[in-house]
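Entry 14. Structure prediction run on the chain below.
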Amino acid sequence: MDPLGNATAAGLGERIRVLRGKRGLKQQDLASDDISASYISLIESGKRGAPSDSVLASLAERLGCSAEYLRTGRDDHELEETRLRLAFGEMALRNGSNGEALQTLSDLLARPSLLDPSMTRRARIAQASALEKLDRIEAAIAILEDLQRDPDLPPGSADWCTVSVALSRCYRNAGDITTSIEIAERAMSRLDALGLDVTADHVQLGATLMASYHMRGDLTRAQLLGVRLLDSAERQGARAARGAVFWNAGLVARSRGQLNEALALVERALALMSEDDNIRHLAMLKMNCGSLLLQVDQPEPARAKQLLEEAQQLLAEVGNAPELAQCEIGLADADAMLGNWDEAAAHAERALGLTGPESRIQAVGARATLAEIHLLRGDHEQAAQCLQAATRQLRQFPPSHQTALNWRYLGDLWRRQGNSTAALQAYDHALSSAGLAPNRDPSSTFTEQGRP
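Output returned:
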């Protein structure tokens, strides 16, 4: 039994009956050599499934409408208008008008009768993307989870890959690295099980998985996956896919302290993706490249500042608050290295303002950068206040590779500030966040056993 099919047939029959009545036609008037009047009667009563395309075309011609209208209840003009609105919503999303895109897509989805299944899926994927870019991660995850459960979304399809990548990325951005990795690993296994050669979808999913491994601090696994993907990406020839792999390989090299190698990889990714229409990716790459130029053996602060300013302009259109804050921190570091301390402090203050009332790791970075600027100016009291605030805030974050890096930075700043106790505590937190638990104190065992 197919209730949905019966409902569709009933709607079709009703439309034929109404149109026939409006035009003063009898069932016999719709009949032909291939279509009997009794068949027309069965269609109108909903007792027959949807007829073939040729029968629909014949009925539409006699009724003076389109076959699409008989099939769906939408006329050609309405269908074309819906397609244009969907395309407009997707274009607004690409151009960084995320709020406008979300409004357009939500309006379309509020009238589901205007959309066929394929258009509905496109609109929901774009809606989830708009929500993600507006930092409404939980709402985006709810839509993507529902899409992933759709039995009509076959593994290996372009939409399936898009949903899997977006869902893994959203969980990562929400701080649930474990679930992010599980989703990407499961999707990679599904692709492998299809028996296909390594495709661009493998590369895209793999790049997302690399990023999650990196964030978890699993650098060895990220590097091994990167080696596999680089070879596949080169064979695929897709510039954006290759760029994504080089980008993530650069991040892994950076975390391993191989800064010159990281810069070379990120610069290659930037060259590959410079012609891509993904403005946000280009902005993030410019920001990463600028940041690395400040950390390599021979820093280039002037070039770094130029790249960071270009990234800032792009992120003003398509970025979210945390990304803009990170860019401001990079600009603060560049200006500090150039001796522009007032400009550096202004960038750090703007970064702090962009983080808002929520607890974000960028706020820790902004306060640490302000502390460093105060130290450069010789203002140790102001530096201590910034470091105390950064230390209090960083304690709220769970252990991770990124948390460990921030604790290490705070430890170095506390040491320069002259507070060795705070520096040692920060280094201890850094080791714990990196997964290195402190050794048990043997004297505590003696005390527990009642020994002196």
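Residues 1-7 have pLDDT under 50 and may be disordered.
Filed with the rest of this week's runs.
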